[in-house]
Amino acid sequence: xxxxxxxxxxxxxxxxxxxxxxxxxxxxxxxxxxxxxxxxxxxxxxxxxxxxxxxxxxxxxxxxxxxxxxxxxxxxxxxxxxxxxxxxxxxxxxxxxxxxxxxxxxxxxxxxxxxxxxxxxxxxxxxxxxxxxxxxxxxxxxxxxxxxxxxxxxxxxxxxxxxxxxxxxxxxxxxxxxxxxxxxxxxxxxxxxxxxxxxxxxxx
Length: 204
Fold this sequence. Notes:
- It comes from Lactobacillus xujianguonis.
- This is 1-acyl-sn-glycerol-3-phosphate acyltransferase.
- This protein is of the alpha/beta class and about 200 residues long.
- The chain has helices spanning about 1-15, 45-50, 70-75, 90-105, 125-130, 145-150, 175-195, and strands at about 20-25, 35, 55-65, 80-85, 105-110, 135-140, 155-160.
C-alpha cells in the first residue's frame, strides 16, 4: 500500500527536478515477475528503474547502515527494501529475494557489480535467478551522473533489454559464472550502443 502511495509522489518529484525521464523498450519486459540487472552508475538508478517498469513493484537491497535512521528505516521497510551487511553478508541476502520472487508479486532490482566503483560482477544475481526460476532482465541508465547534472535537466534514458533465461540445472561453477557474467556485460554493452554509443560512464 505504501509503495503504491509513494510512487506517484516520487514520480512528481523526479519530474520537478528533471522532467526528462525517457523509457525505451518497455515491451521487452516479460510477463510475471523478474530480476532487473544493471551496471551501477548513480545512486538514484533504483528509483528510476522502479518508475520506468511500473506498475510492477520491486524489492531492492539497501546497505544496513541506512536502517539506523528511524524515518529512513520506516520508508525502506515499507518500500520492499531489505538490509544487507556488505562486510558480512548472511544467507538472508539470498533467501529474502528468492522467497519474494517465488511468491510472484514482486520483482527485484539488483546491481551485480555491487558498487558504482566496481566493474567486477558477483554471482548473487545468478544464484537468485537460478533458485527463484526467474529471468534476468538487463537494463541500463544513460544520463547525468551528478546531482548538479540532474538539476540541469539533462535527459535521463532508461533502456530495457531482452530477458536472459537461466538454465535451472546449471551448476554454479566458476566457468558458468564467468559465462553469464559475460552475457550480462554483452547485453549492457548492446543496450548502450543501441541507445547512445557516445555515452561513456565515468565513476564520480
